[in-house]
Amino acid sequence: MLKWKLILVGVLGSTGLGLEDSAIPSACLILCIIPFVCVYVDLHCTHLWLQIHVIGEYLRRKGFSEYEVFAQKAEEQGFFSLEKYIIYWSTIFFSAASSAIGIILTTKSTNNGFYITSGCLGIAFSLITYYYYKIKMKKLSRNPLDN
Fold this sequence. Notes:
By secondary structure, the protein is mainly alpha-helical. The chain has one domain (32-142). Helices cover 76% and strands 0% of the residues. The chain has five helices and no strands. One of its GO terms (molecular function) is hydrolase activity.
């Protein structure tokens, strides 16, 4: 999923920066979409991680616990956290970059509010997605979905 985020950001960024206003008016506003595309990818990753944890919890309860106990200990020690940090921090970075473009263009463009707003919303939605994941993981560990 991370590669798709990079591909989408690259395509949108190069399109937004590469098109001239004479060809398509306000083409640079395509850059405002980048934070929302990043959050969209984050939501897909979060959903997949939650699915994996639910399947792992199920297997742990059905007797395949040896691997699941090992994997849970490895995760608690941070072995699987790098991807999560890359996913969420890259969204925060791209969103902050969108806001920075709006601040830089304050005197040059009337569209700077779109950049700043989309960047701030991207950061907010990224943090909401992260905390949603944390809440669901705590719920899974406390209330293990017994039949």
